[in-house]
Design a protein that fits this description.
It is a single chain. With 174 residues, the protein is mostly helical. The protein has one domain: Orthogonal Bundle (Arp2/3 complex 21 kDa subunit ARPC3), CATH 1.10.1760. Helices cover 74% and strands 0% of the residues. It has 6 helices and no strands. The model has no long low-confidence stretch (mean pLDDT 86).
Length: 174
């Protein structure tokens, strides 16, 4: 027996799942901060919490992905007590979601790995720009070129992981 969900029920389900994914993303972001990385660069990490926003972007769209990115950053800041990380996290999350959405829409056949690379690179650019503003030092922007190759590797990995997770979830967009 199949039943049709009303628009209100679908919206409630979408909001609920987005909230769950925002909390999951925040937890992953905090846990990832404790994992030692093999990247010898400050800021070099896998970006596993970005998998959450990529899945939400694909399943529910830009509006929900932006909300998840923002809420994920706020929850992570509140739970970790690291308020100084908030502007970096918000900027990286929001800019990467916007550019990933744009790339999915404009670049035919980009795939999740390509979208993940764009997301990782744009997140690094946004976070480095925030650092340059906060520290009043434009020379920090040169660090973007050092983080670039890391973005390619980590972005491809998170994109492939988001594709796998997105394909295995049991709900559909509509």
């Amino acid at each position: 027996m199949s039943r049709k969900l009303t628009q209100s029920a679908i919206k409630t389900k979408t909001i609920t799942l987005s909230a769950i994914f925002a909390a999951l993303g925040a937890c992953v972001q905090i846990i990832e901060g404790y994992i030692p990385t093999s990247f010898p660069l400050p800021g070099g990490r896998l970006g596993l919490s970005n998998v959450v926003t990529m899945v939400i972007l694909e399943k529910f769209g830009l509006k929900y992905a932006l909300a998840v990115a923002a809420v994920k950053s706020l929850i992570a800041m509140l739970l970790s007590g690291n308020a100084s990380a908030l502007p970096y996290s918000l900027a990286g999350g929001i800019v990467s979601v916007l550019l990933m959405a744009l790339s999915f829409k404009l670049i035919k056949g980009i795939g999740h790995a390509g979208c993940g690379i764009i997301g990782a690179w744009s997140s690094n650019i946004a976070q480095t720009a925030v650092g340059a503003v906060i520290m009043s030092n434009i020379h920090i922007l040169s660090y973007i070129w050092i983080l670039g190759p890391v973005s390619v590797v980590t972005g491809a990995f998170t994109g492939i992981l988001a594709d796998f997770i997105g394909r295995t979830l049991l709900w559909t967009k509509k």
